[in-house]
Amino acid sequence: MSDKPTKDTVNKVVLAYSGGLDTSVILRWLQDEYQCEVVTFTADLGQGEELEPARKKAEMLGVKEIFIEDLREEFVRDYVFPMFRANTVYEGTYLLGTSIARPLIAKRQIEIARQTGADAVAHGATGKGNDQIRFELGYYALNPDIKVISPWREWDLTSRTRLIEYAEQHQIPVPKDKRGEAPFSVDANLLHISAEGKVLEDPAEEAEEYVYSRTVRPEDAPDTPTVVEIGFEKGDAVSVDGEALSPASLLTRLNEMAGANGIGRLDLVENRFIGMKSRGVYETPGGTILLAAHRAMESITLDRGAMHLKDEIMPRYAELIYNGFWFSPEREMLQALIDKSQEHVNGSVRLKLYKGAIHTIGRTSPDSLYSLEHVTFEEDAVYDQRDAEGFIKLNALRLRLANKRGEG
User: Fold this and answer.
1) Is a pLDDT exceeding 60 seen at residue 1?
2) Catalytic positions, please?
């Protein structure tokens, strides 16, 4: 296992770099503190920001190896979709938008480290949150000997003022609109956008409307419902209204539809892995539609036993993702079970979107287990209602025996 990195043991480090104030300060701090070469890696996961400024800033700070990569398709195909096959929600409501992005970033950092001959990786997560754990568990799972640098756990730049002073001392440009304290912390990707901290720290206070950026207020959504049809193959969404779309394109389309109808807002107090509770305001518009559609698709294609087993293991699977164990053997074992269950989850679902709500209005599948012959209230030739008497009596037997014991 790797020892704590020092300037004597680190020659080159791959930094997860956004181009913002924090990671720009980290970049320069790594150069100064560790006297090492820094490679920057910036991932486009659909956060909706222009990434070329990150390249220019890295060049200005003397970085020679700069990686800027569009990972949107890989993100949705290999991380979001496998998670949604399990109908994954953490603590009943959270669709894990931040959690599911971290393993992909960690994976690419390790690959770039191998490619560039770097012996260390670094991230900009603080020492209070979940992301430090997610990144570092990913790093170690993929390279047990990698050295990991977490500046927020090492340095003394513990305030916004100190960060800006450091930036100014080292000629790191700080835009005028970034000098004031940000009202809350934001993380964004194609699946969701989250807001935490500062003005949102009191869970008793309603979040102001300016916190939301991907959805209209449900009250302001159109007065006419939007009907959408989503096609599935083996548990993954493949089309919207009959048009075949790539994973990232499909999620982008659903984000637009859901956002316009005020769908996908969540105000949550969650339990962080390290033990504290935190309040977050999340928008997961397309993902909220996707979850509803997938459950509706499973309702006519999954056997009862398979469906109920999936529902039992889902909280465990969700917790593994939330806590950073994407690359663990137990997550991969659960994934194999989940993927097996999706072999016949094919067909299409029609949904009505209206003022923040999603209503399932139809579902059809070539692999449907729904039998009108068996379920009809009219006369049928396939089900003998007298069979139910013995079924009920056998299931009641232990209850009757327990009751008789109590009488004694």
Assistant:
1) no
2) 22, 102, 131, 185
